[in-house]
Design goal:
Helix content: 40-55%
Structural class: mainly alpha
Strand content: under 5%
Number of strands: 2
Distance between the termini: 55 Å
Strand order of the largest sheet: 1-2
Largest sheet: 2 strands, antiparallel
Number of helices: 8
Radius of gyration: 22 Å
Order of helices and strands: HEEHHHHHHH
Length: about 210
């Protein structure tokens, strides 16, 4: 067998292995996305009682995460698109917001702010207070911004201000062109009034 033929056979064998690897990776990705979709659907069947303030100085919230919420956090950024697609569903919006900003990046910020309840809609929107409380916790986590809670000192606010959406909208308009999650110093996430004080990192995924 000539050298050229041997090289051709070796090249063909290598290509075959690479194709098999790609096929396996695609199957794994497909399986992963199917599992994520199943977890998102499970949000409808696991009642969530919402976040609760359990400590001050530092401020600490118990997010009371259900199994599917925790599992979606473990799935990490791969779950972001599936969650974004459910932001308009009032039945699970508060859960989606909490999970999304535990795994998302700046692409999730605008949609989450848009999903909040406006000051005019607070009296007529079901679950409005919990939706905005979830968004305030989640957005503070992803941006480490003192829009709702000051970085240190002052009075801890347990109730979300009625104009929370407007506050975040104004902050985002000023910062969206330059903001990046990856640029945030992890130390800046640990200030005395940080509303979940690193609870997302205790799940698994950390920015």
């Amino acid at each position: 067998m000539g050298l050229t033929v041997k090289r051709a056979l070796i090249t063909a064998a290598i290509l075959l292995v690479l194709l098999q690897i790609c096929a396996t990776a695609q199957e794994t990705l497909t399986d992963s996305q199917a599992r994520i979709r199943s977890l998102v659907q499970a949000l409808y069947h696991f009642p969530w009682k919402g976040p609760g303030l359990i400590g001050e100085s530092p401020t600490c919230w118990d997010l009371n995460l259900t199994y599917p919420m925790q599992a979606l956090l473990w799935a990490g950024p791969a779950a972001q698109d599936a969650l974004l697609a459910k932001l308009g569903d009032l039945q699970i919006k508060d859960q989606v917001i909490i999970v999304l900003d535990g795994i998302g990046d700046e692409r999730a910020t605008g949609p989450v702010i848009e999903a909040m309840v406006s000051e005019k809609g607070m009296a007529t929107t079901a679950n409005a207070e919990r939706i905005n409380r979830s968004a305030n916790i989640a957005l503070t986590n992803i941006m480490a911004a003192d829009v709702i809670w000051p970085h240190g000192g002052g009075i801890v606010i347990d109730r979300s201000p009625s104009d929370s959406k407007q506050r975040w909208t104004e902050w985002w308009e000023r910062n969206k062109t330059t903001f990046s999650v990856r640029k945030i110093d992890p130390k800046s996430r640990y200030y005395s009034n940080y509303p979940n004080y690193g609870i997302y990192e205790r799940g698994r995924f950390a920015f």
